[in-house]
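testing teh design pipeline on a random one, pls ignore if ur not involved
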């Protein structure tokens, strides 16, 4: 064999080897056909709250609402959780004309309405495997020098452990202020909660306990503990709403005023929404306690806030706090307003 023929043969074999290698390495990809005719090629990673996510080579991770989708074909295998609790593991799926087709291991195909799907690729805790841990720790610090030297430190922590059956929550908030080397605020509140979800997971029962100290409101310690019933009205990113109503034993120790304890009605409301987009979050958190022995005595704490991402897991938030106590000690304002900016870390 001449040198030229040998060189050509070698080049042909190398090219064939590269082509075969490229074919073997090319992983099958999923395809989403949009109603406007566009096609998105990539890897479907999940679906929740009516939004499908797909990882693409050209634009990273895309989120597409179900209303925009004409059809879906997956080459890889997914985990599909149905609204009735049934779970299909490691199955390719196809969706068209408001129907979804799941291919069984034996090749049989099962058809369901798209509305019957709860989640695609749910998190382990949503399949009953352990707990999901989420939380936020944040600080807000303001310092001023000149005619007035002042410092203000606000801090908060929230940690939640959630499983299919139950949920543990811890919240801690505090404030410490100084003006001209004189302390002007020193208070903190801690709340611990346990929730147990019923057969209808939108309903749950629970118990909570709280302790609060506020030196400049004459409050040495206020604590309460009691059961409640809660309901999750909505649980989607666009709008979440849950409320709780129960009874609580309340004990209040004051520095100068007369101490007291009573049976109270206790309630809370939590709302949030990503309506503004950009991963921002509007939220309202409200807690109330009503003295059932002295019905004119009521405590209302409400927070309005807007949180938005900064970098990675860092977020900033602007908040307005209203704290109202109709039974405040004489000489103490019944309504306390606080405006603050904070920076926090989420997980």
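output:
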């Amino acid at each position: 064999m001449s040198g030229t023929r040998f060189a050509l043969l070698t080049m042909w074999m190398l090219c064939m080897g590269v082509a075969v290698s490229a074919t073997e390495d090319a992983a099958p990809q999923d395809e989403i056909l949009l109603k406007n005719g566009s096609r998105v090629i990539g890897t479907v990673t999940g679906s929740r709250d009516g939004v499908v996510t797909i990882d693409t080579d050209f634009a990273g991770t895309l989120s597409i609402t179900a209303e925009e989708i004409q059809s879906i074909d997956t080459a890889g295998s997914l985990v599909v959780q149905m609204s009735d609790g049934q779970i299909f593991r490691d199955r390719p799926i196809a969706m068209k004309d408001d129907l979804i087709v799941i291919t069984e291991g034996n090749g049989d195909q099962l058809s369901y309405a798209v509305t019957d799907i709860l989640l695609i690729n749910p998190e382990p805790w949503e399949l009953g495997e352990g707990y999901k841990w989420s939380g936020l720790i944040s600080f807000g610090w303001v310092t001023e020098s000149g005619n007035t030297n002042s410092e203000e430190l606000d801090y908060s922590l929230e940690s939640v452990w959630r499983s299919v059956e139950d949920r543990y929550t811890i919240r801690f908030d505090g404030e410490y202020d100084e003006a001209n080397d004189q302390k002007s605020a020193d208070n903190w509140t801690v709340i611990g909660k346990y929730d147990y979800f019923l057969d209808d997971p939108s309903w749950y029962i629970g118990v909570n306990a709280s302790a609060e100290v506020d030196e400049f409101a004459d409050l040495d310690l206020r604590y309460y503990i009691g059961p409640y019933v809660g309901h999750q009205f909505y649980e989607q990113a666009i709008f979440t709403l849950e409320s709780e109503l129960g009874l609580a034993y309340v004990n209040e120790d004051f520095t100068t005023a007369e101490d007291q304890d009573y049976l109270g009605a206790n309630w809370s409301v939590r709302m949030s929404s990503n309506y503004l987009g950009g991963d921002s979050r509007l939220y309202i958190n409200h807690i109330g306690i009503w003295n059932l022995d002295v019905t004119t005595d009521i405590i209302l704490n409400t927070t309005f806030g807007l949180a938005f991402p900064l970098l990675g897991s860092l977020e900033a938030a602007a908040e307005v706090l209203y704290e109202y106590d109709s039974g405040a000690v004489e000489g103490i304002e019944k309504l306390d307003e606080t405006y603050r900016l904070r920076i926090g870390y989420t997980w």
